[in-house]
Design a protein that fits this description.
This protein has 360 residues and is of the alpha+beta class. It folds into 3 domains: 124 residues, Trna Endonuclease, Chain: A, domain 1 (3-Layer(aba) Sandwich), CATH 3.40.1350; 67 residues, Orthogonal Bundle (Arc Repressor Mutant, subunit A), CATH 1.10.10.10; 136 residues, no CATH class. Helices cover 37% and strands 22% of the residues. It has 14 helices and 16 strands. A 7-stranded mixed sheet has the order 1-2-3-4-5-6-7, with helices on both faces. A 5-stranded mixed sheet has the order 11-12-14-10-13. The longest helix is centred in the N-terminal third of the chain and has 15 residues. The radius of gyration is 24 Å and the shape is elongated. The N and C termini lie far apart (51 Å).
């Protein structure tokens, strides 16, 4: 399909059929496709598949241009109601679906396919599972991108929404987060489309803070938002943390595994991740040696998120400042090795102890 012209709904439907035909197992056959009966327009497209044992299944596709995450729950209810009483499999088809929309559809138990090749088809009987990846951006959308949670304004708004359990006016949110009014409106609009916040009576509230945390973590990993430099403290982590606890003339926030042990110990930390305003100044003050092979200190200097990592720090038992739990969890989810599991462990603690870290 050419990407210079916006495809029509009919184009999307034809593309969906072609993609399914190309990706079906060799023992399966795509026998026919039909448009809906005008007197019973329950679905936009019916696709009959035949398995290796001769049994057939129908995929009933609702074809759209774009699906927003906030629409998924309503869409799931509609499709299941239309397909009630049959063994047919409802499918959401669209020109393009973002990663968050695909995730929400999968969580709702719906099959989907978009015209770029993103696909997840699940049929119970006869058993069929097809999964493939297409593009991560809508190739037909022109002009300004629809937005993400990357960048400083999004980081400021996300952290405020995570750190405080409130119903927010835009004025209150800008005062707390430090984001400009225009930026806050743009971020909130995007969050509404992604079903991360809802608006009622001119105030916004978070629908699910874990969902927001994970979405922000995906879009704004520390690898993308900071300058990362690795070092070694020859005398070990304890000696390094003692130096950090002695104070510094620049902002500091310990994150990662070391910080997470303040709330939910998972395993002994192998390295300390530390936000600093200046890597050069911090490495000299603490006497760190550059080391890429086996570092035990990783310094993070914010490039695109301003002072957000230093907001709402608290003193650890050892005296050094640790980042807020939401920041630490987001960083762990993007870390190497066992760190994503540590992030989930911390999130479990956060769910059980929300009153201890989300301020009123």
């Amino acid at each position: 399909m050419a990407t210079d012209e916006m495809p029509t709904t009919a184009d999307v439907g034809r593309r969906v059929v072609d993609l399914l035909r190309e990706r079906l197992p060799e023992t399966w056959k795509l026998r026919d496709t039909t448009a809906p009966d005008r007197n019973s327009p329950r679905f936009d497209l019916s696709i009959r598949l035949e398995g290796p044992d001769g049994r057939a299944v129908r995929l009933l596709a609702d074809v759209k241009q774009v699906v927003e995450r906030r629409d998924v729950a309503h869409l799931a209810g509609q499709l299941r109601s239309r397909a009630a009483g049959s063994e047919d499999t409802p499918v959401v088809a669209a020109r393009y679906m973002s990663a968050s929309v695909r995730e929400a559809l999968a969580q709702a138990g719906l099959s989907y396919v978009d015209a770029t090749g993103n696909m997840r088809i699940t049929v119970d009987s006869p058993a069929l599972f097809i999964s493939d990846r297409g593009q991560e951006r809508d190739p037909w959308r022109k002009g300004r991108p629809r937005g993400t949670l990357s960048g400083e304004p999004a980081a400021r708004v996300a952290r405020a929404l995570l750190d405080y359990d409130r119903r927010w006016s835009v004025r209150e949110l800008t005062a707390t987060s430090g984001a400009s009014t225009g930026a806050a409106y743009r971020v909130l609009e995007y969050m509404q489309r992604e079903a991360l916040v809802v608006k009622g009576d001119r105030r916004y509230r978070v629908t699910d803070w874990e969902q927001l945390l994970r979405a922000w973590s995906r879009d704004a990993s520390f690898q993308k938002t900071t300058r990362v430099t690795t070092y070694i403290e020859p005398r070990g982590l304890d000696a390094f943390l003692t130096k950090v606890a002695q104070g510094s003339p620049f902002p500091v926030a310990v994150t990662g595994s070391v910080a997470a042990t303040e709330w939910a110990t998972y395993a002994p930390a192998k390295a300390a991740y530390v936000y600093v305003s200046s890597i050069h100044e911090a490495s000299e003050r603490w006497g760190l040696r550059p080391n890429a092979a086996a570092p035990n200190v990783i310094l993070l200097e914010p490039r695109t998120i301003g002072d957000v990592p230093f907001r709402n720090t608290t003193p650890a038992e050892g005296g050094y400042p640790v980042a807020a739990p939401a920041q630490v969890a987001a960083d762990l989810l993007n870390g190497p090795g066992r760190e994503p599991a540590e992030g989930q462990h911390l999130i479990d603690w956060m769910r059980a102890n929300e009153e201890r870290w989300r301020h009123a």
